[in-house]
Amino acid sequence: MTMIPYCFVDKRSYDRLNCKVRAAVKLWSDALGEFRDGKWGPENKHSLAFLPPSNLPRSQNFNPYCCNYYTYGEEGMKLDRMTELKFLGMAHEHQRWDRDDYVYFRCENVKGMKERVEYAHKLHGIPNGITTEEVWEFLCENYAQATFWEAPSIAWIRGDGYDDIDEAKSLDGPGGFDYDSIMMYGSAQGLAVPYLSQVTINTATLVKVKKNSSTGEKYIDRNDWWLPIPTRVSQQDAAFVRRFYPIPQLSLRV
Q1: Which of 103, 114, 194, 222 reaches 20 to 30 Å from 241, CA-CA?
Q2: How high is the mean pLDDT in each 10-residue block of the chain (254 residues)?
Q3: Is 37 left (phi over 0), alpha (psi -120 to 50) or beta?
Q4: Of 3, 15, 189, which Cα lies nearest the Cα of 103?
Q5: Closest by Cα among 253, 200, 245 to 226
Q6: So which domain of life are we looking at (predicted)?
């Protein structure tokens, strides 16, 4: 059994997030099978289960709000920069290594990117003779640079920060690119424009890419470019979990 315990920073975060977290867990339960009597049925073909705060081990000094790496600022809750937390899970679909064959990322349309590029160019580009175009390329395609300059583009960059390309490709999951993946961003995610009505093929952050069956040339279909935000766990998402969190095979002793 692979148990994933989770908790909240404090009562404030619990009150605001608990319903959303439970709804997210239900999405996966609906796709993977129900959790009954403390275990998943073998017919579900995976060993993943979530452990809510109420089931965490208790002691005399038990704190139901067991995460203390966050602080509150003017913009809400933020991760302490001095703390490095690593999570194991699925990478975003639009960060797959083959994503350019299926979607086109318009980095310039991500909210906050223009200001971040101007800031990085002023501090690092101008005294070193680096052009604005080069800074755009660094912050839109290089995960390490985007992280250093705190560019919002890190949520779209291919590879999701993995240095080992082969390892990153192995995490892309079986079955090829999946537009329906719960880990897929939509065309309107992270927009610089303030209103949904302003989202066009030119202002979207992600647009669908097609291939000419004869020439292999990639193009954007003006009648079929929109990518909605998925609301369900896809069959390929479920296959990914079953692949990386399989039920252990028990050996029989004679």
Answers
A1: 103
A2: 74 84 86 64 74 57 57 51 49 89 95 96 91 96 92 89 64 80 94 83 95 93 94 90 74 46
A3: left
A4: 189
A5: 200
A6: Eukaryota
- What's the chain look like in SS3? CEEEECCCCCHHHHHHHHHHHHHHHHHHHHHHCCEECCEECHHHCCCEEEECHHHCCCCCCCCCCCCCCEEEECCEEEECCCCCCCCCCCCCHHHCCCHHHCEEECHHHECCHHHHHHHHHHHHHHHHCCCHHHHHHHHHHCHHHHHHCCCHHHHCCCCCCCCCHHHHHHCCCCCCCCCCCCCCCCCCCCECCCCHHHCCCCCCCEEECEECCCCCCEECCCCCCCCCCCCCCCHHHHHHHHHHCCCCCCCCCC
Q: Rounded to 5 degrees, what are φ and ψ at 194?
A: -80, -20
Nearest in space to 153 (alpha carbons), one of 104, 202, 109:
109
